[in-house]
Amino acid sequence: MSVTQTSTLYEREGDYIPRIAAVHDLCGYGKCSLGVAIPVLSAAGADVCPVPTGLFSSHTAFPGWYMHDTTDILADYLAAWKGIDVEIDAVYSGFLGAPEQVDIIRDIYATYPKALRVVDPVMADHGQVYPTYTPELVAAMGELACDADILTPNLTEAAIILGREWTGPDIDEDQVRDIIGALRERGAKNVVLKGIEHGDGLIHNYTWGDAAEFSETTNAKLPYMLHGTGDLFASALLAAVMTGRGLPEATAFAADLTADAMVVSAKQPNFEARGVSFEPLLGKVAALLA
User: Fold this and answer.
1) Distance CA 68, CA 55 (A)
2) Across the chain, what does the average pLDDT equal?
3) For the chain, how far is it from start to end, CA to CA, in angstroms?
4) How do 47-58 and 19-29 pair as beta strands?
5) In whole angstroms, what separates CA 44 from the centre of its chain?
6) Rounded distance, CA 21 to CA 224, Å?
């Protein structure tokens, strides 16, 4: 595993606490979205300022979930921030509830032009688009990806953004380079492509961009899948970046923390339904400040 880097994306200065606008949904039950981003980024010494894109009773793997789309409140919500001189150092977006929310995120970018733009294009996995995503929202998410300083898609999301067919998780390194290269050509400055398999019993994540040479991290593939691991990965990656780590090192940290959390999760009752359990590992995130 290489952690070679060319530059850092955020320089932490002294005792300053960076502020992150976390543009995600809020889920009542099930470990995902703001329920992951807030504690993980807070453990890294960041002030997390939530911008809720939707309210869910539970994550969508449970039957009978309820969703409330918050699009109509967000303009007034964010206008109130301007009135109290809120300063933002990073804008971190994930699950969106409507295509109009992409325009709202672009307004946040315009208000805070120096803020780091982190886009986790949460919309699909294993070849399937999530049930709340319309074709219009999928297209809007793809456009938002082109504005990212850090883009963290899985293979399905990368294929959607590029208008390509998803051919499964097992692709070779040349294909990885082609996909990341194409995403960079569309405007993403740095890309972390997640969840690649090569039939070797490992999960591979690849990093490449303006701030990082091409690099790879690997972790053992576990025999189960969990809801919320993508949110944990992206949140842990940003946590490391906001403590001054380079992107390859941040990717390795995020991959290791997510793998450790999956092991912790398997010790909990009904773990495959509840989602990823990371709480006992927050000390590892806090150690980034040491």
Assistant:
1) 5
2) 94
3) 23
4) parallel
5) 16
6) 32
Q: Residues near 130 by Cβ (< 8 Å), separated by ≥ 6?
A: 60, 95, 122, 123, 124
Residue of higher predicted confidence among 167 and 284 = 284
Q: Which amino acid is at 139?
A: A
Decide if 176 contacts 159 (C-beta within 8 A).
no
pLDDT digit string, tens, across residues 57-92: 998 888 999 999 999 999 999 999 999 989 999 999
In the chain, the amino acid numbered 273 is A
In sequence order, the 6+-apart residues with CB closer than 8 A to the CB of 223 are none
Q: Please provide the DSSP assignment of 185-224 as one string.
A: HTT-SEEEEEEEE-SSSEEEEEEEETTEEEEEEEEEPPSS
Residues pairing with 224 in the sheet: none
**Cα torsion at 230, 236, 239, 241 (round to 10°)?**
-80
CA distance 208 to 2: 12
25 close to 50: Cβ distance less than 8 angstroms: no
Distance, CA of 203 to CA of 3 (rounded, Å):
17
Q: What is the pLDDT of residues 143-161, one digit of tens each?
A: 999 999 999 999 999 999 9
pLDDT for 28-64, tens place per residue? 999 899 999 999 999 999 999 999 999 999 988 889 9
CB 122 within 8 A of CB 228: no
